[in-house]
Design a protein that fits this description.
This protein is mostly beta strands. The chain has strands at residues 3-7, 10-13, 18-25, 32-39, 46-52, 58-60, 68-73, 78-83, 92-100, 108-109, 113-118. Strands 2, 4, 5, 6, 9, 10 and 11 form a seven-stranded mixed sheet that branches. Strands 1-3-8-7 form a four-stranded antiparallel sheet, with no helix packed on it. Strand 7 and strand 8 (78-83) form a beta hairpin.
Length: 119
């Protein structure tokens, strides 16, 4: 059974930083791509960042490029999203997701963690 469990959300001031974690289990990680998405009220879910478990290639959405960093810890089966220089528009529920690299759609999703940015 695949499980993705996010943590690390919270309240931060504009310009501050947070680190989100996604603990994954039930996957054979090598062929997977791990992603972070977010959804804020009244908006569609949007892609934030992704990392290929094998090789570590990373991808970022334009609004977070240069501010957010996605990384993985093989020993801990955990993916991180380091978020710096946070803006009010970054406030959202952040979701961790996983898909096989051969697929376009993400198959597995976490429950989400709330990030609130005060101005």
């Amino acid at each position: 059974q695949v499980q993705l469990v996010e943590s690390g959300g919270g309240l931060v001031q504009t310009g501050g930083s947070l680190r989100l974690s996604c603990a994954a289990s039930g996957l054979t990680f090598s062929p997977y791509v791990m992603g972070w998405f977010r959804r804020s009220p009244g908006k569609d879910r949007e892609f934030v960042a992704a990392i290929r478990w094998s090789g570590g290639t990373t991808y970022y959405a334009d609004p977070v490029q240069g501010r957010f960093t996605i990384s993985r810890d093989n020993a801990k089966n955990t993916v991180y999203l380091n978020m710096n220089s946070l803006k009010p528009e970054d406030a959202a529920v952040y979701y961790c997701a996983a898909r096989k690299s051969s697929l376009r759609e993400y198959e597995f999703w976490g429950q989400g963690t709330q990030v609130t940015v005060s101005s």
